[in-house]
Hints:
Distance between the termini: 54 Å
CATH superfamily of the domain at 3-250: ATPase, nucleotide binding domain
Structural class: alpha+beta
Number of strands: 20
CATH architecture of the domain at 3-250: 2-Layer Sandwich
Number of helices: 18
Strand content: 15-25%
Helix content: 25-40%
Amino acid sequence: MQYLMAIDAGTGSIRAVIFDTLGNQISVAQEEWTHLEEVGVPNSMSFDCETNWDAACRCIRESLQKANLSGDDIVALSATSMREGIVLYDADGVELWAVANVDARASHEVKYLKENFVGIEEEFYKLSGQTFALGAIPRILWLKNNKPEIYERVAKISMIGDWILAKLSGVIATDPSNGGTTGIFSLANRDWHAKMATRVGLKDDIFPSCHEVGTLLGTVNQKASSETGLSMQTKVVIGGGDVGLGSIGLGVVKLGQVAVLGGSFWQQVVNIRSDTPPPQDMGIRVNPHAVPNLSQAEGITFFSGLVMRWFRDVFCEMEKLEAEKRGIDTYEVLEEKASKVPVGSYGIIPIFSDSMKYGKWYHAAPSFLNLSLDPKICNRASMFRSLQENACIVSCVNLEKIKEFTGVEIDEIVFAGGASRGVLWSQILADVTGCRVKIPRVTEATALGTAIAAGVGVGIYSSMREAANKLVVWEKEYVPNMENFVKYQAIKERWQKAYEVQLKLVDDNITTSMWKAPGL
Length: 520
């Protein structure tokens, strides 16, 4: 039997997952990680390459050990990552500087670009589907302005998933689904658009080769072999961004298909043609898909999974103890209790992520509104359910915006990621959207899509589409309760009105935004 490995560098954790060639998950090893604010640099989110590489190596070794396999058993591997996070290298391929996905240090640079290159963000958005909010141009400009000695040494750029593959193989390269999120990219051509860098006075010769997902890159080098336990015969294959590969792992590979990926962040994606121009209002993001000739219209819900982790760790010690005694996950205990709470969570309104406003994007201060002093109705269970409902409501609003832009009628959603393991959460998503919700047997779809990429690279599968159609197996389907759907329509409207008021408090400098795009 041959085995494939997927390495998934998410916002909140790093994982190594092993699959057999039939798509069965054999083992997984995971470590939670954090990205630290750089001292003296507000809103920064630095990526620690040394510490995080050590964590990746530990996960690789542990996944092999759990599967009772040696490095020789892994025929090929690939990697995926949070998008937008970038790594800059010197001429020898040594990391100089790296930031994680929602690093927002470059506010002054965004303002500078908008004031001195009037209309350039709109121009670049038409080509790339990206704004400056999460793009690489302002961040690199920040480096040039604040650490010129590092900037002068920059010879290459890659995404974080590409960095993992570079550490393993010694080759720096990227793909459209991840590299496209830098914003220095052409949606139609699915390749770098270096003239964007030239226009704003940045280096235009730092962009590595761009290959489609599933392209063979090389083999594991000697140093990486000694660090990870992988064989030097193991093939290293180009991966991609977490959403694109997650979509492949969900079988969302055809025009018009829809997915919700419920991880640290939630993404709502709809497959569209790669030559589809982005919307004029810049409200929705458009990315290259990991499948050739397709793009994805995307909504994003900030921090949904991370908010749940925060709520669990801060408020739910009793549930943690109960889960430990019963030998189950803390979230299962919380879902059991939340399932007894009625639709609407007794009127509790969570204020965390706003719906997608890509052109001018900021969030209100994190809060719960409409809490009651009655402990029978305002407690951990009702607050937990309100967070589940809220993630689904924001997803629904984002899908409605995508439908308006694309004209795609949505009646079925494929749901995956950690959130899809929640029975209650999956049913709430169906009830809020009024759509059938399908859950794949392998809920860690991003890892499966990454393993598929590895398999394509060594000829085990003929294409990403063929493998997805063959390997994705459905575990459950949730049918919407239309009575609940009607109730959630009213709840959704109240949430939107409440959020608008909460944003006004940020505008008036009374509260602090949970996250604000650079330059706003």
